[in-house]
Design goal:
single chain, three-stranded antiparallel beta sheet, 354 residues, 2 domains, six-stranded antiparallel beta sheet, globular, Phosphorylase Kinase, domain 1
């Protein structure tokens, strides 16, 4: 019998049992994710990796294989770390006839995902999980991971690319976005805040997740505690400050990242305090004094960087980020630039919690 692609992948990636069905999971916009079920065996989380976003999917999988193998050695509790399932040919993935790459993880039972940071408790638990992930990866053997998305958080490089998009004005939108363009250029010094510390060797390169948002943590359904970090596609070498800053960006404001009413873009200091405490507790005290001094600035830099990326995509004609309405990327840019400014205005206060 001929199987549809998820079923065929499940047959190649199954540990035991006979495949019965696959149903879509989650609301992710990059990879296709399915729950694959089997007769006489545990279900698996099955994913097709988006090769348009990840042009080197085997490099991505090489990183994930190293990370999950190391986590299995460091963390014997299977509910606290993803477990990658090898294909029947021994590899960490399987390719279908069209060349698409598939992988599978064991299900982590009794967990749930949260999409919004409702308050300090969720912020603390998720930050503790991300801090613990970096702590567990601090002694990864075998040299640095592959940089599968070069320059991902190179904020000065992002600024140069933005300048080129303003000059080219491919979609003819620069005149109408002059206020936002001026806002980016007037704050260009912010692009150097973390980059200069990295160039000077003041902050170490670590294993970083690079997509630190609350829905990339599995929470225990019974206790509400953060258990397990997921979505490892962007795990690469980087600065801990990138990860902390990105989580600050996504968590401290009650407004979504595309909020049109900028008065709702605010900094919840109690959430920031919980993030800083959770990260410190999870990371086992490995945060250096130099990193600690930059924690209040990290969210501002990453919000500025993402606002610049949204505005660049608006000027380019919405080629990268998926949009759902006219000027959607422009609204996103305004929101992130406002958030960066709000964080900047509160950094002296935020430093008290670091």
């Amino acid at each position: 019998m001929s199987l549809h692609p998820p079923g065929e992948a499940a047959e190649h990636l199954a540990l035991h049992g006979r495949f019965t069905r696959a149903s879509r999971m989650g609301a992710g916009h990059i990879n296709d994710t399915f729950l694959a079920e089997f007769e006489g065996a545990e279900p698996l989380v099955l994913q097709r990796v988006n090769s348009a976003v990840f042009p080197d999917p085997e490099g991505v999988m090489a990183n994930i294989e190293r990370v999950t193998d190391h986590l299995a050695r460091r963390c014997p509790d299977e509910r606290r770390a993803l477990r990658l399932v090898r294909a029947k040919d021994g590899r960490a993935f399987w390719r279908d006839a069209a060349g698409e790459l598939w992988r599978a993880y064991r299900c982590v039972e009794g967990t749930l995902v949260k999409d919004v940071v409702g308050g300090p408790w969720e912020a603390y638990e998720a930050a503790r999980a991300f801090g613990a992930f970096q702590y567990l990866m601090s002694d990864l053997p075998g040299g640095p991971l592959e940089e599968t998305l070069p320059g991902f958080h190179d904020t000065p490089g992002r600024l140069k690319a933005f300048e080129a998009s303003v000059r080219e004005d491919r979609a003819g939108r620069a005149a109408a976005a002059k206020a936002e363009i001026d806002a980016v250029f007037s704050r260009r010094a912010w692009a150097e805040r973390l980059a200069a510390a990295a160039r000077a060797g003041l902050v170490p390169v670590r294993v970083t997740h690079n997509d630190t948002k609350i829905n990339n943590v599995l929470f225990d359904a019974a206790s509400g505690k953060g258990l397990c970090v997921i979505d490892l596609d962007t795990v690469m070498p980087g600065l801990m400050l990138y990860d902390f800053g990105d989580f600050v960006r996504t968590a401290v404001s009650p407004a979504p990242e595309d909020e049109a009413d900028l008065s709702r873009v605010q900094v919840r200091t109690e959430v920031f305090e919980a993030l800083a405490q959770g990260w410190r507790d999870g990371s086992g005290g490995m945060i250096s004094e130099e990193e600690r001094a930059l924690l209040p600035s990290a969210g501002r830099v990453i919000a500025y960087e993402l606002g610049m990326r949204f505005l660049k995509d608006h000027l380019d004609g919405d080629r990268y980020f998926r949009v759902h309405r006219p000027n959607h990327n422009l609204e996103r840019a305004r929101c992130q630039l406002r958030l960066a400014s709000e964080i900047f205005s509160r950094e002296a206060e935020l430093a008290l919690y670091c």
